[in-house]
Amino acid sequence: MAGYGEGLDPYTTLNTPTILRTRDIPWDIYMTARLISDRELQFLRRYDKKEPTYQTKLLKEGGKLYTNAFLTVLKNVTKDETLQYVLALIDDLLDVDPSHVALFLPPGAEEDQPYVEPYPILLRLLQRPDWFTQEKAARLLTAILASQLRPSAAAQTLDVSAASPAASALTAFVDWLCAQLRRPTHPLLGVPAAAHCLGVLLRDPGVRPLATRAGAAGLLGALVRVPAGGVIQNPQLLYEAMLGTWQLSFHKPAADLLANTATVGGLVDAVRVAQKEKLVRVALLALQNLLAHGPAGLEFAIVDKGLRRVLEVRATQSWDDGDVPELLAALGASLERGVCELSSFERYRRELLLGQLAWGPLHTADDFWAQNAERLAEGNGQLLRVLLKLVESSRDATTLAVGCNDVARFVAAYPHGRGIVTELRGKELVMRLMVHPDQAVQRQALACVQRILLSKDHASALVAGVGA
């Protein structure tokens, strides 16, 4: 968990090295109080305050005897300073060698030694009031559970649906992590810690349904945001959130929740402005999955967020990570396929509502207008009114030129188009543009006015001859 704050609590300045260096625990009093056995006392004395190389030697020779002693203290002792010290010992041994997590797993059939179940102990510690205890318990729980989960769908070691202690602990822990995302117990470190732990656990496909039911999709998706100024204030938290979003995007119910404009927009913004390559990479991976889950997110990414242009710009840059250029190209290809599959009228409607028109097949194809002109007149001409409003108020020359073209094509394709446009002051609005300083706007305005004034037979050649 070093990635989100090195276990440091700015309010209590607690961290593992400080605790191990400054505290001396009177282990004898716990044996006198019968909270630990004489044998456990000997293991604690033998391990505590020794050189790291000697501690590693002890763990290699009889590791589970020592971790059982640690867990017994965590189970029976309630004094904050002692709990924090033992958690610091465990934190330290995991930092020295992450494979030491195996010492907390159940013994194999060939091993004949006692075993202290860590799950109820650690879950209880999550409810302690101090952040150091919560964080270290969460770190150990994450490591233990992750070591039993499958790295891929082909090799499962923990059945998350089974009624085993580990499976029950996993469900409870995921619920706790999502609760931290909602209302963190530490104002600075609670959310980053929870996002990190979820990211580790979500590597396993079996955890994703649990996390989705606990609300992880919405909670992580809400963290995928880039401030308006484009300065990413907490790159590591953004990375953890996007990593979790990408992992959840393989689970369809979660992907359906994540494929919304806010999350997709945040991912596009990350691709646009992020300087760290790992941020760009994971944002591209998440977008590739989410944009395949429906037209809404795809339209938003293309039209609102300008994803095409973002990919073009970033493709011109040099990258140390060879995966990034490949991902940029792959997402660009997916984008083109997705655009072809979108309803053409939905794309046109989006352009209108965004107030920015650009030349393309939607504006020049006779088939499109023959099939869709009547849809502009639906709802008391709602979309036609939007088009005329653009003709009246837009300051973009291309939008004005394309808008005049569209009015002309509507008049040509819709049986009562001329009368409706005239009734809505469309002719008057277009005539004003005949003196616009941009020649393309003048040309399209003239053709449109001719279409409105002349009969279909006389005007068809004029409109057909006026292009972009």
TrEMBL record:
Recorded GO molecular functions are: proton-transporting ATPase activity, rotational mechanism
Outline the extent of the ATPase V1 complex subunit H C-terminal domain. 341-455
> What does UniProt give as GO cellular component?
vacuolar proton-transporting V-type ATPase, V1 domain
Gene3D superfamilies recorded: Leucine-rich Repeat Variant (1.25.10.10), V-type ATPase, subunit H, C-terminal domain (1.25.40.150)
* Record flagged with keyword Calcium: no
Quaternary assembly: V-ATPase is a heteromultimeric enzyme made up of two complexes: the ATP-hydrolytic V1 complex and the proton translocation V0 complex.
Name this polypeptide is given: V-type proton ATPase subunit H
Can you name the source organism?
Auxenochlorella protothecoides
